[in-house]
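Entry 14. Structure prediction run on the chain below.
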Amino acid sequence: MSENIKKEILDNGICLLSMEKSPVNALSYDLLLSLNNIFKDINKDKNIRVVILKSSLKHFSAGADLKERKIMSKSKSGDALDNFNNCFNTIESISKPTICIINGYCLGGGAEMALSFDFRIGLEDCIIGFPEVGLGIIPGAGGTQRLPKILGISNAKYWIYTAKKFNSTKALEFGFLNFVSNKKSSLNMAISLANEIISNAPIAVSSAKKAINSGYNLDIDSGLLEERKCYKTS
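Output returned:
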């Protein structure tokens, strides 16, 4: 277990992960590697039903670790993007439903990580955005691919082209957030959502997640074949 990520098993098989890499949960190589390994282990644990990720700090994540980025060669930056993608793909593809609680800044790579979760709960103080084009790059850890699926293609282009930052109200309106909560109630909201999911058959839930994820980019006939495969396992 990473010293920057705390893991706690709550009632009913809810796994709570807390990031605490001071000061802003910058997504360093080691932090991403730890998250990747933790989610892989969670996926193998039959006793865990739902995963909740939150920050124990003032911010969810301000994005990539810029200190690491400054000293990277072009080849090393490619390796870093692979590390981002490997982690976020693992989060997105595990069979357990996932929820993240977003507080403070959720920018760049932090926002791309949030997109890998099934549900996003934003605190009233959260600020979300993709500032990359202002820095002369583009979102390179799945942002250009996952954001259009959540917001629609034109809205995703608006978010990315302008590099604007959005508060919780606007992020909810656009559909980036599923719910908004105050600080005191956010974890209870996440646990309540988790328990709603847990009240249903676990294999059916995981099969439904697989059917939705695997069929999303397919034509209807291919998607129905994926649904049928998953139906047989539920």
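The radius of gyration is 17 Å.
Filed with the rest of this week's runs.
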